[in-house]
Write a structure and sequence with these properties.
single chain, about 350 residues, alpha/beta, Rossmann fold, Dihydrodipicolinate Reductase, domain 2, nine-stranded mixed β-sheet, 10 helices, binds nicotinamide-adenine-dinucleotide
């Protein structure tokens, strides 16, 4: 069995909590090189995780290290540049979301990968989640009838609010990041993954909290002045009177509504939760039998991890197929996110051009 060698850039929260330990537990992959622009961070982490190579810049890592796949878990604003360098160096790519900030950049990456016959897989990973796959199967089999609308919450209280961080969270409030690109990308990927491409978008957006205070971690107490909107409410038109609503914000300190994603159809409702014990609920209304009610599908949920996008990428390379986390789908979501701001500025509905 080939052991796929991974180079990882961006030694932050998600890499340490998930990607490095999880990839190193795969039988057919190992992380052999780490890179971070904060001096000595990759070195300290290479000692922590027992990885021999460490670098302070991506160029050094790409020119000296002999790995097969680059995993990019760096800050959002650096994704496009790092991803392009990796493809140009002949590496297969797994990029954290969004892999670019504009449709133009996303197209450059898609074409570069195609030209070089490289595989590219893009987070978020929702399309691989067992409960999302099951919901998609139920929708495609018309179990809840014609879809009227979908509601998805893509918000939390802010990266400075509830997460322990040993890296300064200020970058989340800089241009190119913010809750739309950090969180909205999750909800938009889920609803488009389930219902298909969007035809047009409308939105409301603004800065709700003018100053943020870091509440834990190494930067506890640090004040952050947001330079991007911390609250965007998005409305999507899928055509045929099927609509979507996604809230993308750092303004939800808590919520007890109990569900993240709800899909309402003419014959019932689907509710998807991140609660591992109660991931999917189905409400069915059977007109012929006059039987209606809630049920939980009998499914033995398989194990699922954050790094399974990398696992799928490896399988895609070995089987010479497209990865399931498609770059064209990711580009469609990038277009929606950008057009939300155009819709806000022009106070009208904006057409979406890309498809997947
Ligand atoms: N933390 C989470 O729960 C989470 C969950 C899902 C996805 N993500 C995504 O993962 C990515 C990283 O998030 P995080 O929370 O781990 O952030 P983080 O701030 O903890 O870590 C980012 C790391 O990237 C490094 N970095 C930035 N620019 C770089 C460059 N040009 N070259 C090398 N290193 C660079 C930073 O120094 C930092 O160590 C983001 O795209 C984020 O949206 C995070």
């Amino acid at each position: 069995m080939k052991k796929w060698c991974i180079g990882l850039v961006g030694c932050g929260s998600i890499a340490g909590a998930h990607y490095i330990p999880e990839i190193n537990s795969f039988p057919n992959a190992k992380v052999i090189a780490l890179c971070d622009i904060i001096p000595h961070r990759a070195k300290i982490w290479s000692e922590r995780f027992g990885i021999s190579e460490s670098y302070e810049d991506i160029d050094g890592m790409l020119s000296k290290s002999n790995f097969d796949i680059l995993v990019n878990t760096a800050s959002i604003q650096s994704h496009f540049k790092i991803d392009l360098k990796a493809l140009k160096a002949g590496k297969h790519l797994y990029s954290q979301k969004p892999f670019a900030t504009t449709v133009k950049e996303a197209t450059i990456l898609i074409e570069e990968a195609k030209r070089r016959n490289l595989k590219m897989s893009i987070s978020p990973i929702h399309i691989l989640r067992p409960e999302i796959k099951e919901a998609k199967r139920l929708i495609e089999n018309n179990i809840i009838g014609k879809i009227a609308f979908v509601k998805c919450s893509s918000s939390h209280g802010g990266p400075e609010y509830f997460q322990y961080r040993d890296v300064d969270p200020s970058w989340f409030y800089e241009p190119g990041a913010g809750p739309m690109f950090d969180l909205g990308v999750h909800g938009l990927t889920q609803v488009t993954g389930l219902l298909g491409p969007v035809k047009s978008v409308q939105a409301l957006s603004g800065i709700s909290e003018k100053i943020r205070t870091t509440r834990s971690g190494v930067f506890d107490g640090k004040k952050i002045v947001p330079k991007v909107d911390d609250l965007t409410l998005v409305m999507l038109d899928f055509g045929n009177a099927t609509f979507g609503f996604v809230d993308c914000s750092y303004c939800v300190k808590a919520s007890n509504k109990g569900s993240d994603l709800e899909i309402f159809g003419s014959g019932g409702t689907l509710v998807i939760r991140e609660d591992v014990n109660n991931r999917l609920q189905l409400y069915l209304d059977n007109f012929e039998t006059n039987v209606r009610g809630w049920m939980s599908p009998i499914v033995q949920w398989p194990e699922f991890k954050q790094s399974y996008g990398v696992k799928d990428l490896i399988e895609a390379i070995e089987q010479n197929r497209e990865p399931l986390l498609s770059a064209k789908h990711a580009r469609h979501v990038i277009e929606i996110m950008n057009k939300c701001y155009v819709a806000v500025k022009e106070k009208r509905s904006i057409k979406i051009e890309t498809i997947f």
